[in-house]
Design brief:
Length: 201
């Protein structure tokens, strides 16, 4: 005598539809969790140094108008370190690193010791649809450095996801590319380390 199927088992046709819907929902959930993990990667640990054909080369041309209507040209910052930071307000590590960038900006502005060069920041808007959100973001969270929506910069710096930060030496040469959220301590240590190595050479 064969066992009866439990009463909560659906008719095969409906059950097949239900199973497909459940599998699709699980797949979407896994993808979303993976995306969140990718976006959050490095938010607390500092960005990871990554290879780039730009490292060791002159920084790409970066000029144009900032969101507040001012003219900007990265070449005007020769003699200073420049952090080129690509971000979006919907990106959790971008939001997490912002306070650290504010700290680094203040630190960089006050560098006047022997062998020290000041440090400037420019932020590049990765998502062109959120210009208004960016202005609100900076007004609420601080940061008085230039912000640009230069679309060509995303191509020239070969940025595929945010956040990414490029460290430009006072000579105008790209010294490092950091993928993921950065910390103030990490950026300070990197700049000091590069300066020290150049002094020793």
């Amino acid at each position: 005598m064969s066992e009866q199927a439990p009463s909560d088992v659906t008719v095969p046709e409906n059950g097949q539809r239900f199973g497909s819907a459940r599998l699709a929902a699980i797949a979407v959930g896994v993808v979303l969790c993976g995306l969140i993990a990718v976006l959050a990667l490095g938010a607390g640990e500092g960005g990871r140094e990554s290879t780039s054909p730009l490292v060791g080369q002159r920084v790409p041309t970066l000029a144009g108008e900032t969101l507040d209507g001012q003219a900007y040209d990265i070449d005007d910052n020769r003699g200073s370190w420049v952090l080129v930071n690509f971000f979006a307000t919907w990106c959790p590590p971008c939001v997490a690193e912002h306070d650290d960038l504010v700290e680094v900006s203040e630190w960089g502005r006050n560098r006047q010791g022997p062998g020290e060069a000041p440090l400037e920041i420019i932020s590049l808007v990765f998502d062109q649809s959120e210009r208004e959100q960016v202005e609100t973001f900076f007004a609420e969270r601080g940061g008085d450095w230039p912000v640009s929506a230069n679309t060509q910069a995303v191509v020239d710096f070969q940025v595929a996801q945010v956040p990414e930060t490029f460290v430009i030496a006072p000579s105008g040469v790209v010294m490092a590319r950091l993928r993921g959220g950065v910390t103030a301590d990490q950026l300070k240590e990197l700049v000091v380390e590069i300066e020290s190595s150049e002094d020793d050479s």
